[in-house]
Amino acid sequence: MFAEEILTPFPDHTQLPCEDGTFVKNFQEHPQSVLLTSAIQAVLDRLHPDGQYTIGQDSGIYWRLTDPPQRGAEAPDWFYVPNVPPTLNGQMRRSYVLWREIIPPQIVLEFVSGNGEEERDQTPWQGKFWIYETVIRPAYYGIYEVEKASLEMFHHVGSRYQKMTPNEFGHYAIPELGVALGIWQGTYQNVELPWLRWWTLDGTVIADAQERAKIAESELISAQQRADALAAKLRELGVDPDDLG
After folding, report:
1. Residue 191 CB coordination number (10 Å)
2. Is 35 within 8 Å of 188 (Cβ atoms)?
3. pLDDT score of 149 more than 90
4. Which pTM value belongs to this model?
5. Per-residue DSSP letter, 113
6. 87 within 8 A of 13, measured Cβ to Cβ
7. With helix as H, strand as E and coil as C, how does 172-228 read?
8. Is 119 exposed, middle or buried (0-12, 13-18, 19+ CB in 10 A)?
9. CB of 143 within 8 A of CB of 137?
10. What is each CA distance from 58 to 18, 216, 220, in whole angstroms?
11. Radius of gyration of the chain measured on its C-alpha atoms
12. H-helix or E-strand containing 55?
């Protein structure tokens, strides 16, 4: 029987559950994940011109076989894995199966819904902190508490997590990406909160897709206004701007 079990292939993402039948999310967590993904997309596309990376949002990372299977998985609110394909055999990933992929996430972020004990739990084989530090081993682990407007970041050094120190802007640098993580007080999707945002290393917030579109639209309107003003000035001088073309 033991030999047969050894020969049985380990399950892949299509054979493992992708949900546990519960809902524990609040209204802030989904837009927060979308904001992070949208803003970092251009950075990751530059770093991975071959498109070999994946982002998970409240998706399972399977790290051991258990019964039921969900007990052997953690589901970070947001994580990024470099150098793996975004799809498998033409299918969207249902989960990230560590024993098949081997490559650990580069960044794992947890959004605190309670008092933060779960995200800091170092109980062997059970606690989130212990599992991330000992088994899944993302290079960076972040604990974001919207109610406290705080972010705590850890960097994996050797076999343990070391608490990171923020830079002069109060952000946490991720040198591998050339960006930083920090809190931004502002309005996103019609809600003002202390949002978790990506920043440049010199302290400028990185715009997401919607913000970039608004900036481009504003610049286009400004350019048109300057062109109209110049045309009006030329007409005052007796010059028809249409004749200059």
Report:
1. 11
2. yes
3. yes
4. 0.83
5. S
6. no
7. EEECCCCEEEEEEEEEECCEEEEEEEEEECCCCECCCHHHHHHHHHHHHHHHHHHHH
8. buried
9. no
10. 10, 31, 37
11. 23
12. strand 53-56
Q: What is the pLDDT of residues 89-108, one digit of tens each?
A: 899 999 999 999 999 999 99
CB 10 within 8 A of CB 100: yes
Pure H helices in the chain: 2-7, 29-47, 98-101, 117-120, 128-131, 209-236
Residue whose pair of structure tokens reads 């309005």 in the numeric block:
187
For the chain, the first-to-last Cα distance in angstroms comes to 85
Tokens 């020969």, located at residue: 7
Residue 239, both tokens: 């010059």
Q: Tokens for 53?
A: 């990376």
> Maximum distance among all alpha carbons in the chain?
97
- What is residue 163's predicted lDDT score, i.e. its pLDDT? 98
pLDDT above 70 as % of the chain: 89
Which pair of structure tokens corresponds to residue 38? 């949208």
